[in-house]
Amino acid sequence: MEDAPWWKNPSTRDRLKGYRYALHRGGIPVDETLIEVGNHGLRDAERATRKLMEQPDRPTAIFNFSDEMAMSCLAALHSMGYRIPDDISVMGFDDIPYAEYCHPALTTVSQPMAEIGIECMELLPQLKGKEMDACNRILPHRLMVRNSTGPTLSAMSPALAGRSQS
Q1: Hey, how many other C-beta atoms are within 10 angstroms of the C-beta on 13?
Q2: Dihedrals φ, ψ of 93, to 5°?
Q3: Confidence class for position 155, pLDDT limits 50, 70, 90
Q4: N or C: which end of the chain has fewer CB within 10 A?
């Protein structure tokens, strides 16, 4: 079964909306060239990572819409010779059990999975004949800061910004 296009997935739309909102709140303009879309697949994440890193003004951080995508991003960056987080930070979303065990341990947004399941079961009767967005609930999330994020060496010392990747 083929994945639905990303724009049909409410959580993907909400994560993109949250990304844009966070940049806006931080006074950072949204650069559309830094947004790559896919269907949460590992190959999509690898392709997007490589495309982002080929840009002349490459990013210093990559936020992935899932931990699995972030792990694929980490693998692609490692294969290109980048050191995480010295050269670039990587972040995921979900806090799956493997997130703290990959290398480096993944910074991610932790979702209350058990509570999400309970809410879904309670909302199920209300969904009959309605769009999913009509029964939207936002549950508390937590940022789990681990070793995949931090200031890049180039941000700490402008003299290091021009060094080659090896």
Answers
A1: 13
A2: -150, 125
A3: low
A4: N
